[in-house]
Structure formats: structure tokens, C-alpha cells
From TrEMBL:
Belongs to the ThiD family. It comes from Paenibacillus antri. The lineage of its organism: Bacteria, Bacillati, Bacillota, Bacilli, Bacillales. Keywords: ATP-binding, Kinase, Nucleotide-binding, Thiamine biosynthesis, Transferase. Residues 21-270 form the Pyridoxamine kinase/Phosphomethylpyrimidine kinase domain. GO terms for molecular function: ATP binding; hydroxymethylpyrimidine kinase activity; phosphomethylpyrimidine kinase activity. The gene is thiD. GO terms for biological process: thiamine biosynthetic process. It holds the Pfam family Phos_pyr_kin. This is Hydroxymethylpyrimidine/phosphomethylpyrimidine kinase. The keyword Repeat does not apply. Signal peptide: none annotated.
Amino acid sequence: MTDSRGGRAAPPRALTIAGSDSGGGAGIQGDLKTFQELGVHGMSVVTAITAQNSLGVQRIAPVAPELIEAQLDSVLGDIGADAVKTGMLPTPESVAAAAAAVRRYGLERLVVDPVRTAKDGRRLMAGEAFEALAELLLPLAELATPNVPEAAALLGVPERDIRTVDERVDAAKALLSFGSRHVLLKGGHAEGDECLDILVAASDGGRRPALLGGPRLARRHTHGTGCALSSAVCAALAGGAAAEAACREAKAFVAAAIAGSYPTGAGVGSLRHEAWRAGGAFDGRR
Ligand SMILES: Nc1ncnc2c1ncn2[C@@H]1O[C@H](COP(=O)(O)OP(=O)(O)OP(=O)(O)O)[C@@H](O)[C@H]1O
Ligand SMILES: Cc1ncc(COP(=O)(O)O)c(N)n1
């Protein structure tokens, strides 16, 4: 297809508002790889610089709120976005800047990944930033993608109370009270042979949950799975998919990337973001 100026028609536009992961597997870097693999034009607003690798997060420097606002205005004032995702928002000010831009530019298709800690347990969002996210950003979201520890923190209950499928369905429903139109409660941190994500919609009060199942893959190198999932949903939403279809496609994308994951450094290695495009044909060995 060509546009009126004779160029190729532009792909859908997807924006990530997140932290930089110097190791390349999660954060901005993982999100842009995912966007590229899923055929959307990927853009980024960097909220923090992290020094991190396969062993963990060594250092974090939040980006100044004015610089976050400037990036948002540069991108959204000119290029625009068909869908947006947020990841690491290190301070309440960065949350407020993201929420203000979502409102100002009328962005409907927003995925909020309430990233709280990295795999090594290092806190990526301060407590006040997490509270600001619940108050300012979740009410604007088409979809929130908490994992079980994040769901427990939001609901103020112990993680052990969100274990069985029934408990997880109830938790997903309860999370709708924060105002997002859908909640996808991820199952990576749950137990069992199945890796079950649970999607509920505010439109029916969460009464008809969609169960997104799949085998739990025995892989060690899973750095960045949460980032890949939320950016894959964002890419599908940018292309016009409905929320459930976007979540199903994203889950398949992440499963292939985990199946093809590979070691980097001495610790937890990386997803293979290109695995889905390549037909999921990797077996996890280099
Ligand atoms: N071992 C696994 N096998 C198959 N799918 C998995 C596995 N681990 C996670 N997933 C899937 O990956 C996606 C991300 O889930 P997860 O719960 O790991 O997110 P997260 O905790 O935010 O990620 P991270 O640990 O990177 O922060 C979900 O769709 C989940 O079902
Ligand atoms: C900048 C940034 N954002 C998000 C994550 C979470 O990813 P994971 O839990 O897989 O380490 C991360 N490690 N770094």
C-alpha cells in the first residue's frame, strides 16, 4: 500500500514509557524489540536509567520529570500513538507526567504494567510511586497487567491469599475497583504445571473471566517476561485488536520467546524476542 505522497503506508504506532535496561532484556530495550517483532512503529519515553545485567540491578537514576514531559510532548505532539504502555515509573512525578500526557492527548489504548520489583527483588518503583500509579494511572487504563505480588500489594493482602484459581479470579475482579477497563492477572509467579493468566473486564463486573492457559515452561532465562507481555498487548491494541484477542496473542508471543530463551552473563538470561516471528522453532539451546 502507498500513501498520498507515494510512500509505504505507515504501521501502527506504539509508545513505551519505561526504564532503560542496560542488559537489553527488559524495560525500554525489551519493549522496542517486541514492538519491532510485532510490526508496529516503536517509540520510547525513558523514565529511568538502570545499570543492570543478568545478575540484577546495580544502580538506578530517575530521569528528571521535565525531561520525561519533554519526551512525551515531542513524541505525542508530532508523531502520536495508537497505543501506549507504561512500565517502570520510578517516582510519583513520573507517574503524574505519564497520566497528564495520557489525558492531554486523549490516549484510550493504555496498558499499565505495575512494575514494582525486578526479578532480583530490587525495588524499581518507590512506594509512593506505586500509590500514585494506583490513583492516577490505573483509572485511565484499558488494561492493567499485575503479577501476583503486585496484585497483593495493590489489594493490601498477603501473596499467600492469591494462590488457587478461584482466589486469583477473585483478586482479578477486586483489582477492577482501581478503575482499569480490564485486568490481566499474570500467572508466572503462581505454582503448577500450567501457567494461567486471568483476564477480567469491568463491562461485566468481572463475571465472565477469560482463562488464558498454557504449559509452564521449565526455563531459567526469563528476564523481561512481564515487559514482553505488556508491550506485545500494546502492539496488538495499536493494530486495532480487542483486549482479549490482544492478550491471547501476547501470551503466545511470550511463550515462544521463553521457549527460545538463552543465557546472557552468569545469571538470568534473555527471552528470544524473534522466536514468535520465526515460528517458535527454537529449543532454548544456543
Ligand atoms: N515459565 C513460564 N512458562 C510459560 N509462560 C510463562 C512462564 N513464566 C511466565 N510466563 C508467562 O509470561 C507472562 C509474564 O508473566 P509473569 O508473571 O512472569 O510476569 P512478571 O512477573 O511481571 O514478569 P517478571 O518476572 O519479568 O517481572 C505471562 O503471560 C505468564 O503466563
Ligand atoms: C527497566 C526495567 N523495567 C522492568 C524490569 C522488570 O523486568 P524483570 O522482572 O523481568 O527483571 C526491569 N528489570 N528493568
